Amino acid sequence: MTHAYDDTNIFAKILRGEIPNDTVLDTEHSLAFRDITPKAAVHVLVIPKGAYVTYDHFAREASDAQIADFTRAIAEVCRREGLEEGGYRLISNVGEAGLQEVPHMHVHILGGQSLGPLLAE
User: Fold this and answer.
1) Count of beta carbons in the 10 Å neighbourhood of residue 103
2) What per-residue string of b and e applies to 31-54 under the rule 16 or more CB within 10 Å gives b?
3) Is the pLDDT of residue 92 over 80?
4) Rounded to whole angstroms, how far apart are CA atoms 70 and 68?
5) CA 36, 44, 63, 99 torsion: positive or negative?
6) What is the C-alpha separation between 111 and 90, in angstroms, rounded?
7) Model-level pTM?
8) Is the pLDDT of residue 39 over 70?
9) Which residues contact residue 37 at a Cβ distance below 8 angstroms, ignoring those fewer than 6 apart?
10) Residues that are catalytic
C-alpha cells in the first residue's frame, strides 16, 4: 500500500484550524475530538498531528516521541471520558477493505455503553 498523504483531507483541515472540532485533548503530537456522527455514547477520534495515512505507516515512520504521545493521548481520553472501568473499543480502519473513510491515520475510541459484536454479521 502506498502512503502518499493528501493534505486536503478533513483531518488535515481540522489540524490547520480550517474546520472547527469539539476538542477533548490537544497534545504536542496528537489531537482528540468528538466524532460528528457518533456510533456510541462516547465516540472520540484521536489523530496524530503528523502526515500519516494508516496505522502501519504511523508505526513505521513516526518518531518515538510521536508514538508515545499518541498512545498516552488515547489513555488520557479514556480516563477523562470515564471508560477505564466499564470498557471501551479502539478501532483503526485501514484502506479500502478496512473501510477507511479519511486518509489520515486515526483511532476511534468507542464506549459508554455495551457495543455488541465486533463485526456485523
Assistant:
1) 20
2) bbbebeeeebebbbbbbbbbbbbb
3) yes
4) 5
5) negative
6) 9
7) 0.94
8) yes
9) none
10) 106
